[in-house]
Design a protein that fits this description.
CATH topology: Nuclear Transport Factor 2, Chain: A
Order of helices and strands: HHEEHEEEEE
Distance between the termini: 42 Å
Helix content: 25-40%
CATH class: Alpha Beta
Number of strands: 7
Radius of gyration: 15 Å
Largest sheet: 7 strands, mixed
Shape: globular
Length: 126
């Protein structure tokens, strides 16, 4: 049996692997395994939580900065992915208490673009 690399994966396969890890709240593993080196991460303009990051390391730092601000985790869910062409989207809800915003509840659509078996863009709508 040959070893399948991310470059061999279809958008459907990337979405399925994403879902498998997301259901376990393994977000940094998603980044390590599925994100391209030149991935871009975009939040809504004027977001009080996040901004824009480009590149695997800056995107990782963006996520780590948020995790470090969490004081209490109250719950989260991620819907099954919907795939269309080289994109997939999931619904996501999270409720946390953060150092700088208190208790917040975010409900969002997370859109991903896949190229050559890797995620090259994540964009959040909330």
């Amino acid at each position: 049996m040959t070893n399948v690399t991310s470059r061999d994966m279809t958008t459907q396969e990337v979405a399925a692997r994403f879902n498998e890890l997301a259901q376990q709240e393994k977000w940094f593993e998603i980044q390590d395994e599925l994100f391209a080196d030149n991935v871009r991460s975009i939040d809504p303009e004027n977001s009080p939580y996040f901004g824009y990051a480009e590149g695997k390391l800056p995107v990782r730092k963006k996520g780590m900065d948020f995790v470090e601000r969490i004081e209490q985790f109250h719950g989260a869910y991620t819907t099954q992915p919907v795939v269309a062409g080289n994109h997939f989207a999931v619904g996501r809800g999270v409720e946390v208490t953060t150092k700088d915003h208190g208790r917040i509840k975010i409900e969002e659509i997370m859109l991903y673009e896949v190229k050559d078996g890797q995620i090259v863009l994540e964009q959040f709508f909330y």
